[in-house]
Write a structure and sequence with these properties.
single chain, ZIP, transmembrane helix, zinc ion transmembrane transporter activity, 247 residues, mainly alpha, 86% helix, transmembrane
């Protein structure tokens, strides 16, 4: 199967799963709110595993470290700048100026999904196992992220139907990110692929450490803290299993 097929199927699945997660929130808000603590921890573990166990090692086979490390750093810096410019943070629904923030959240979510498309496409161009592992990691963080974004839109004054429509529309920007990466595929340049993989790894590291881990630390109840630790480990273990199975 051609990499392009894997890429666009994976992006479509990610977008669809995000919509399913938001629909689930509309049906059972309290249940998913309680599960959010575990979902965020699982997402953080899987994102870090995808970056450190998949993307960076594979990229290191394509480019030297003096090229790979700046590319990864560029990914971290790019995600940081996007969040700072838009004043947008994952999993923070309470804002003082909520109505303008609603639209900023849509823009930020669209840009973030655009980056997800880049990460997925770049991963598949490295290898199919890396692409599958990255897709799973993206799905793991996409569900709680989209649930949170939907909550922001509703809290900001949008009706549930309009919030669902807008939120799903922002998820579709991942296709544009994937399409841009495919332009580089025609260059057949391993250095470009290595840099893209490094950039994608930096983006995943930023999401996990800057957005998800701080949310995890807000929980202080012992049972939920233990559940977080287990979920975090399961996220890492799942990606590790995917690597071993498909390699």
């Amino acid at each position: 199967m051609e990499p392009q097929v894997y890429i666009f199927v994976s992006v479509a699945v990610v977008s669809a799963i995000s919509l399913v997660g938001v629909l689930a929130l509309a049906l059972n808000k309290h249940l998913l709110h309680r599960a959010m603590v575990v979902l965020v921890s699982f997402a953080a573990g899987s994102l870090l595993a995808a970056a450190f166990l998949d993307l960076i090692p594979e990229a290191a086979e394509l480019v030297d470290l003096d090229v790979l490390m700046p590319a990864a750093l560029a990914g971290i810096v790019t995600f940081f700048i996007i969040e700072r410019i838009l004043h947008w943070h994952h999993f923070h629904a309470e804002e003082n100026d909520i109505h303008p923030f609603t639209y900023l959240n849509l823009i930020g979510d669209g840009l973030h999904n655009f980056m997800d498309g880049i990460a997925i496409a770049a991963s598949y161009l490295v290898s199919v196992p890396v692409g599958i592992a990255t897709t799973i990691a993206v799905i793991a963080h996409e569900i709680p992220q989209e649930i949170s974004d939907f909550s922001v839109l509703v809290y900001g004054g949008l009706g549930r139907k309009k919030a669902l429509l807008f939120n799903f529309g922002s998820a579709l920007t991942a296709f544009f990110g994937a399409a841009i990466v495919l332009v580089f595929q025609n260059m057949e340049n391993s250095a470009v692929l290595g840099q893209l993989a490094g950039f994608a790894a930096g983006g995943l590291i930023y999401i996990a450490t800057a957005d998800l881990v701080p949310e995890i630390h807000k929980e202080h109840r012992l049972k939920k803290v233990l559940a977080q630790m287990v979920a975090f480990g399961l996220g890492i273990a799942l990606i590790w299993f995917i690597i071993g199975t498909f390699e």
